[in-house]
Amino acid sequence: MNIGHASEKSNLPAKTIRYYEEIHLIKPGRAENGYRDYSIQDVHRLRFLQRARSLGFTIDECRQLLSLYEDDERSSADVKRIANSKLAEIGEKIRELRSLEATLKHLVSHCNGDDRPECPIIDDLAGNNDA
Amino acid sequence: MNIGHASEKSNLPAKTIRYYEEIHLIKPGRAENGYRDYSIQDVHRLRFLQRARSLGFTIDECRQLLSLYEDDERSSADVKRIANSKLAEIGEKIRELRSLEATLKHLVSHCNGDDRPECPIIDDLAGNNDA
DNA sequence: TAAACACCTTACCATGACTGGAAGGTCAAG
DNA sequence: CTTGACCTTCCAGTCATGGTAAGGTGTTTA
């Protein structure tokens, strides 16, 4: 199967698929004309990678997950550990963003938003924390 | 004031300060020995940038905010508009992360996490959505 | 049969916002 | 005089692609 077809099946741009080969995540065969030739197994791997990436796993985590995916003897604890650490990261990121949101909302709510220059948002950024 | 001192006062790494100069966010003077020489005003700008970046504004947004900061005739509406658009972005990002978190939590909760190979997380990534 | 067009190849540059390191100049203290 | 803490510029790397160029291949159509 050519890369275009594999791209459709996996929901990954061809560019990305070639990049995954470059960093040794997959190694498709080659046809006589030099075109990459993807097997059904390869497409499974690509779909796996697409899903894992869209869940926020980094390429390195995907590499770990993929090797667990291909290992019939894996323990589910190994997989769960990776997922839990990613969950912790996501939770932390959410907390940070919510704190940012609160701060900005507070500033915005105190800004008149008219054509006068007084602006508590700028004042805060400038370090004048009068509020 | 040398860059090391400016770095302490602004809470920005010296590397970052030099980078900000490279992209024309600030332009400190130079001492006779060629060292950068930061004024109090420069440090105010750096602190402003540090705060704005930590609130999630991009460099380009910081550039806008900085020019508003330096413009006594600015309208607070201009500032509020930028802040509101950033707020919308942050909200969207939070929604995405919460959705990721929910999906992952669901998967993790169904995974035994023992030394057997059965793993609903891997199954899901592989595209077997039995759950 | 030939041209048009879709697809494939490699190779290189760009992104955002830094961070790290090499190679070297400057300056104060011991 | 030398050590060490600073400072300088320049070059390369990060992450996960995206863009573009220059060219080879394969199928369809005039």
Keywords:
homodimer, 131 residues, mainly alpha, Multidrug-efflux Transporter Regulator, Chain: A, Domain 2, 2 domains, two-stranded antiparallel sheet, 2 strands, 63% helix, elongated, DNA-binding
Explained architecture:
Chain A has 131 residues and is mainly alpha-helical. Chain A has two domains: 1-74, Multidrug-efflux Transporter Regulator, Chain: A, Domain 2 (Orthogonal Bundle), CATH 1.10.1660; 77-131. The first copy, chain A, is 63% helix and 3% strand. Chain A is built from six helices and two strands; from the N terminus they run ααββαααα. In chain A, strands 1-2 form a two-stranded antiparallel sheet. In chain A, a hairpin with a 5-residue loop joins β1 (29-30) and β2 (36-37). Chain A is elongated and about 70 Å long. Chain A binds a DNA duplex (30 and 30 nucleotides) through residues 2-4, 13-16, 18-19, 23, 33-36, 53, 58-59.
How many helices of chain A?
Answer: 6
**Main sheet properties of chain A:** 2 strands, antiparallel
Output the radius of gyration of chain A: 23 Å
Total of domains of chain A: 2
> What share of the residues of chain A does DSSP label as strand, in percent?
under 5%
Instruction: List the strand order in the largest sheet of chain A.
Output: 1-2
Indicate the CATH architecture of the largest domain in chain A.
Orthogonal Bundle
Terminal residue distance of chain A: 63 Å
Number of strands of chain A: 2
Low-confidence stretches of chain A: none
Would you tell me the structural class of the helices and strands of chain A? mainly alpha
**Largest interface: pair, residues per side:** A-B, 52 and 51 residues
Tell me the name of the CATH class of the largest domain in chain A: Mainly Alpha
Q: How are helices and strands ordered from N to C of chain A?
A: HHEEHHHH
Indicate the percent of residues in helices of chain A. 55-70%
